[in-house]
Predict the 3D structure of the following.
Amino acid sequence: MINRLRPYQKEIAVAVLDSIFHHKGITFSIEIARQGGKNELSAQLELLLLTLFMSSSKNLIKCAPTFKPQALISMARLKDRLNDVGFGNIWTAEQGYIIKLGYCRAVFLSAEQSSNVVGNTAHLLLEIDESQDIDKQKYNKDFKPMGSTTNVTTVHYGTAWDDATLLEEVKQNNLELERKDGIKRHFRYDWQEIAKYNPDYLSYIEAERIRLGENHPLFRTQYCLLPIRGGGGFFDNPQRAQLQGDHPRRHRPQKGKTYIAGIDIAGEATDNDIKNVLEPKRDSTVITIGELDYSQVDEIEREPQINIVEHYGWTGKKHTELYPQMVDILGKVWGCRRIVIDATGIGLTVSSFLRKALGARVIPFTFTSSSKSQLGFNLLAAVNTGRLKMYLADGSREYIEFWQQAEKAKSCYRPNQTINFFVDPSQGHDDFLMSLALLVEAGKDYAPRKAKGNG
């Protein structure tokens, strides 16, 4: 069974099994780059223990951040491995979360806050899958005690995230213990180690590095296994330098070019004051116009560059008064092929109006915790790979406000590999920042129309 594993997986398996068989009760932390085989390692350990202890009424327990799909995926993999070795007609399933071979059980549980798991005992092994996504209090209160009376060996699997996760805490504790007694408790294998044994994986990682950029939070944490520090700036100095382009601002389109737009919608004013200036006390409705540059697109780089060419901002102007101006700017002036607009809250009304006037090229975007996180990651990828460029300084209010927001933007890293990005309200607004992110969304996977011909 264990012979099916790669060398780095075997190294972990030997250490875990030694702790189990010699009743050492060690807690291990295992960081393996995404798609590097941690789930296969876990399934092989479970298969071996079920086989060796099938005559004993003992449990091994595995928890995951969610039951569906994460715990169910682990269960399915274990069932496949049991079938592979000829146990297809022997193992049984109980209560929807237990796999039984003889008298021995593998119990799969959810670590969600609402899950009721108290009362289970881990005799052979306690596995914590995606430990970086599990609440510390939930683990310490409900799961850690499961092995207290059995001195159970515990394994935390996962990848890096920020420096406040359960996995990072266990990892740091293990490294400190290693320095004291020399017993290896923390195992770390980044993408470079895994690629030694899998050429296809190397090709995949190289494509991800091109798509995201080496400094992207997901690439750094999922593949390089480098934790990030929460609460820092959204863009660092090198990223802001990359964002600066060398093209001039334009107030009208160029023939033959493709244009897109991102729109952040402000709340309406409470009075009839109409102003076309940016006020520090109110957020603005901001339109960012981008030009798609396909000159750099090749077999490796498939996404066009987005050159920001124009900004429009209105503060305190009623949406009903903005409608005809926005339709004219987006449709008649720039002829935007794709327009992504904030459709959250009051933005829903504006987006509905624009979609009715301009058709399917208008795409509503609803901000949720998850959708905004993906928006942020896509924005960082565009900056990191040089696919997003701001026009040259022109002394305008829009240019100044854009860079102030880019400099003040903060990031907050949350569980489950999600991110929030914003400008602290005490420091200003983030309307230009959100409009920029929506512009990147508008350019995503956009393919220009090809002229028909006989060629």
About this structure: The first strand starts at residue 27 and ends at 32.
